[in-house]
Design a protein that fits this description.
Elements (H helix, E strand, L loop, with lengths): L2 H7 L7 H23 L1 H4 L11 H36 L5 H5 L2 H23 L7 H28 L2 H25 L15 E3 L4 E3 L4 H10 L4 E3 L6 E2 L4 E5 L5 H14 L2 E2 L8 H16 L6 H21 L4 E4 L5 E5 L4 H15 L4 H17 L2 H20 L4 H12 L7
Parallel strand pairs: 3-8
Antiparallel strand pairs: 1-5, 2-4, 2-6, 3-5, 7-8
Amino acid sequence: MTGQLRKYLRPIRGLGTVPGLISLALWVGSLCALWLDHTFPEFSNNEAFRYFYTDYDTAKSVLSTVAAASITTLGLVYSIVLVVFTTAAGNIGPRLLQRFTGDSANQFTAGLFGGTFLFSLTVLHQTDPDLVPSFSIACTFLLAGLSVLQLIYFVHNASVSVTVDEEVAEIGSQLESEIESLLHREAVDQYNQKIPERNPEGSIVEAPSAGYITHLDVKNLVKFARENDTFITFLHGQGEFILEGQKLVQLNSVLNDEQLSKAEKIIHETVPVSRSRSPESDAEFSINLLIEIALRALSPGVNDTYTAVTCVDRISSALAAPVKRGLRDHVRADENGIPRLLVPGLTLEDLINTAFHPLRRAAKNNVLMIKHIIDALGRLLEIAEPEAREVLTQHLRLILESSKDANLLKNDVDFIANRCKAFVSEIK
């Protein structure tokens, strides 16, 4: 999928367009069912549909009931979704609303009830004393039964959606997947030549608008670089905010006006700039979500330390793989192993600092939270490579220094110091 296509599809994947498309599909299905009933009466009178044989008055009553119930329940579904949104935004974090609008259960439920309403209403309109469409009525019964089962599942899913531990676990799983994807791309990007030095005289492509870099179409960028025998250096990483006219990439080659115009068109298509960040393929965004939930939980107004502890546990789980294997900027090569693209990414130090600096500051006077942050760093130290050990050890030193400056009793400070020394004996 190209970056340009992602740009156009992203706004329509919420609770408006997807349910609308499902409803329209079922509406078209009602026309197909009625066509079968009118064109092939013997099909409608098949033995398989004998349980749905009925007279005109009964069919009219049943179809009216299904239509009325469907549209009423659709209103209920959207009401529940709004309640879930309000609760999640207030108790967990407002940026989780992107996740809820993209929830497939919410989308399918709304679309199913809207489609069932249109289906039954259309069949009702075409039912008359001369022809009672048994097959279409059978389909209406099927949709009604499916709607009941989906409503039960929807209520269960909505209740789980406002459970903070479940939501933290889901975000943590997504973060692990994103980091694993970064590590996988780093592993397969093998190149057999030295990375070219950045040419300060090379052509510059500027950002077309202000916003966030949400996706890189690496395949087409490498193809463009190979065809033009150049090396592309991204000056900003994925997830960063840039201004209109700010330098986006620099090419090692110097292009004339016509070549530069073509390069700008291709790069702008393959590197879409969005008005808002998305959790898709953005590890830092997912880390920030967990940090936001943890900081909100540690605030005096909420005072829910164990939710913050859960966030720390999930962050440590997601960091396990890069702590073992390391994480660097990413060089992309073509099929011949020639480096073509340099994308600045989250290094291992960036990930660790992004996660633990704000948590350490927020937990300065909370011994329980400090203890769990130390434990999380200790777990990572046990599996860390040398470079990661140095960064993690530095965070343990910072925690110990912060505790000495905090408003804590001497026994609390001694407890924190002993906890740190259990993992790194040379800490003082």
